[in-house]
């Protein structure tokens, strides 16, 4: 057990910093006088105290972390931080006379921090503004945390997507590397994230949102989170301009943040546009939008202009795992929402706040499959798998294979568990996909106009578990279940 | 083009032999006097003439086949033979005043030869006996063809499952090898197949079936085909004894036929029972039966005895890709039929007449994933993937990876095509899975009590394509689409 004390020490530090985040809704509660200041202040104090106690109490255990420690740390973070985010959520909702149970509150917190954006709450417009700020700010924090995880911490652990990621940046832009030290890398990425956030906020504000709406929707756009302060989501604004701004920022945020970092640092953008994953992500999202638009047009749902507007917006919103909606797209022919949900499994880049399989894995799988085809015809052909200018190592291909198996088995098993609990197959599979890809809205009863509160507590827990698994790139969590993990 | 003449020559030979198969329904038509003798006689004559013309006309092109020729031959065989099987099917049904269109007739023939067992025909009990004999005999022929393909021809081409298969038999039973020459191997396997067939026929007959029913159901049991001469399928007999016999032969036929061959040849069975794929297949089918039985019991569908009887029979029937039914199991909680359909994707062994992913690939995937988990925790660990006593080569793992990608992409794309054509998602996905796994009955409108004739012609063609793809182990057909295939 004491083997894991250094992990708990770091966790204490993370919780301490996290508690400071509660000052954002506290400030909003103060400026907007929504009567919930005490909730945020006391929750922050409790979280700070717990974090600081853990951090300080275990300060003797400052030690270099090993891979298994890293896996443990990351897994525990995504389980524990939502717990402390749940405290003010339950408290505040209770104080305004709309209490929710722990299952729902924890789900809402996990959905926030993992940037999933599924919700069990209704009548969002009637909520005190600080609650909505907290919900959306959780996504922004989660997005930031993921970037550091994906770019700075996970590569050190050699975990799935990050391994790929390392390979990725080493490829087309071989001469320059990400700043090798974790701290500096993290700072650089946060710089990009902050710049994007500021730009997105200003664009929304200039485009006609109120300042507070611009902030909340900025929070959930750059993090690909998709929560909104309005029940109508983006339809509330009824503004093609704002929809266009959202599309641009969702596209930008679906790409690898490290590419921006490197391009800005080097001052030229040639390598940026040549990056195969970036091209893949943009092609998938824009191409997906065209497919949906064509289907809507061909099936006579809309005329050409509306088909393009609604098709593009929703395909990019759902495909990028964000999940904003302007219309209840479940009323469309079922091909469209299903296609968009599947798109969200593959479209986003590693090194973004997106979830799911990630474009880089898709590219490796396709190239590897193409090589096998050639081998069928020319058995003696020797051909490496390449991505951009780089040869993909066998170990990376093996890790992609393992990821795909775990992804498939997890998705199917959790869906079957929901089916066993008497959920219909379409709702079950889409709820799990929407959770494991951190997309948010699914199909059936958990669609964009529906709500995860129709599920039983058991079903909500399954989805909560799926969100955490998806966020952890699956493997790292599953690794916890292997006996070799617990052997010293 | 002349490059492919040697392929057409072999195809001519195959067609010539295939035409002889039409004498089976001809004999039955004669002994049962069902008035269709002319159909079988003329169809046989036409097929024989076409085959012989092709064979004879291209006799100058007798040449050693290269891998690309083999792929072309195999693909063309599964497209062309059903075409000639369609001729008497349409003719006979037309003569009895129940004409069907070409789309349906071709579907029925492909469903027969690929051992899928999906049907567009209704009122089977009212059909002239020779038509039912032809339908079921097609499955028996198809099963035999697959065994030779899988065991004797495909390994020479290095195609997917067969490459695995080579690896497989080289493993636990390293010292003995399948007789190296194709002809001898094929003879040995046909010997096993014939022995199984004789035993199954006698068991069914002794168990209470009429001789003709015993023959037809033997045809579709040992080939894991699942067609029946009765609308009620196995419920017609209402005999737990016959159901038990079917279960035993379905289990036996789901295993690798080469294992029987080797065990019989060597005269001892230790290696047989130690084979990891055999254990995997039996565990999956029997374990799957227990799961279904438990679910039926827990959900209060049946008492313990009936839950075990119906759960076991249907899980093994569907899971082994056979598809016999005693009850309309779509009335069960949807978990059960969905679970059985998924089981049919993975349960059967390579070297059986089963279809889908095959147990050997599942085992390799699982072991490979387990290795990656260990690597996450101990990055420097070097650990080969083993199956039984054998180390699985990297190339095999890569080919499994490619297969899984093509399997996933094919299944999802074809399902989405059906959804696009306005089929509901559950029917669409299950129809494609039931086709690509050669299972037969799906869910929704294409369930065990339903029928593929509810689909539009376009949808029927998609399913036909899926059956052929599944039978070709996907890769070989997809290889036809790569440019390098057509380059000399
Ligand atoms: K989301
Ligand atoms: K079948």
UniProtKB/TrEMBL annotation, chains A, B:
Cell compartments where the protein resides: Cell inner membrane
Family classification: Belongs to the TrkH potassium transport family.
Q: Please describe what this protein does.
A: Low-affinity potassium transport system. Interacts with Trk system potassium uptake protein TrkA.
Transmembrane residue ranges: 7-28, 40-58, 70-93, 105-124, 136-157, 190-212, 233-262, 282-298, 310-332, 338-366, 396-420, 458-481
Pfam families to which the protein is assigned, alphabetical: TrkH
- Membrane topology term: Multi-pass membrane protein
Protein name, UniProt field: Trk system potassium uptake protein
Main localization of the protein described in the UniProt heading: membrane
Q: Whose protein is this, by species?
A: Variovorax ginsengisoli
The cross-references to InterPro entries, in alphabetical order and at most eight, read: Cat_transpt, TrkH
Q: Which UniProt keywords apply?
A: Cell inner membrane, Cell membrane, Ion transport, Membrane, Potassium, Potassium transport, Transmembrane, Transmembrane helix, Transport
């Amino acid at each position: 057990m004491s083997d894991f004390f250094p992990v708990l020490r770091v966790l204490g530090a993370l919780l301490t910093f996290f508690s400071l985040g509660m000052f954002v809704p506290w400030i909003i509660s103060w400026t907007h006088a929504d009567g919930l200041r005490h909730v945020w202040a006391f929750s922050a104090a409790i979280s700070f105290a717990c974090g600081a106690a853990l951090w300080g109490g275990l300060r003797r255990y400052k030690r270099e972390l090993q891979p298994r420690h890293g896996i443990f740390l990351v897994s525990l973070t995504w389980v524990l931080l939502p717990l402390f985010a749940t405290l003010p959520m339950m408290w505040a909702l209770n104080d305004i006379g709309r209490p929710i149970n722990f299952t729902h509150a924890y789900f809402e917190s996990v959905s926030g921090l993992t940037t999933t954006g599924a919700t069990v709450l209704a009548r969002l417009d009637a909520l005190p503004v600080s609650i909505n700020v907290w919900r959306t700010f959780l996504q922004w924090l989660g997005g930031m945390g993921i970037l550091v995880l994906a770019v700075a911490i996970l590569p050190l652990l050699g975990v799935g997507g990050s391994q790929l990621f390392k390979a990725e940046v080493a490829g087309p832009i071989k001469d320059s590397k990400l700043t090798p030290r974790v701290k500096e890398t993290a700072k650089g990425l946060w710089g990009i994230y902050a710049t994007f956030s500021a730009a997105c906020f200003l664009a929304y504000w200039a485009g006609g949102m109120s300042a507070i709406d611009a902030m909340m929707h900025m929070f959930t756009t750059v993090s690909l989170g998709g929560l909104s302060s309005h029940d109508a989501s983006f339809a509330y604004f009824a503004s093609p301009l704002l929809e266009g701004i959202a599309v641009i920022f969702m596209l930008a945020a679906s790409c690898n943040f490290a590419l921006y970092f490197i391009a800005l640092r080097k001052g030229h953008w040639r390598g940026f546009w040549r990056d195969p994953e970036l091209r893949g992500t943009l092609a998938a999202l824009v191409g997906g939008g065209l497919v949906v638009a064509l289907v809507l047009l061909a099936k006579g749902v809309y005329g050409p202009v509306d088909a393009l507007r609604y098709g593009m917006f929703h395909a990019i919103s759902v495909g990028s795992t964000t999940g904003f909606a302007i219309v209840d797209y479940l009323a469309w022919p079922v091909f469209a929402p299903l296609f968009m949900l599947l798109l969200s499994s593959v479209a986003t880049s590693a090194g973004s706040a997106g979830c799911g399989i990630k474009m880089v894995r898709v590219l490796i799988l396709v190239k590897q499959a193409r090589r096998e085809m050639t081998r069928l015809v020319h058995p003696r052909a020797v051909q490496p798998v390449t991505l951009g200018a780089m040869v993909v190592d066998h170990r990376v291909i093996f890790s992609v294979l393992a990821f795909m198996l775990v992804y498939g088995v997890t998705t199917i098993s959790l869906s079957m568990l929901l089916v066993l609990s008497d959920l219909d197959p379409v709702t079950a599979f889409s709820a799990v996909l929407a959770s494991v890809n951190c997309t948010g809205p699914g199909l059936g009863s958990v669609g964009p106009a529906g709500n995860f509160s129709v599920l039983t507590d058991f079903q909500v827990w399954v989805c909560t578990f799926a969100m955490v698994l998806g966020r952890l790139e699956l493997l790292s969590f599953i690794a916890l279940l292997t006996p070799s993990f617990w052997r010293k």
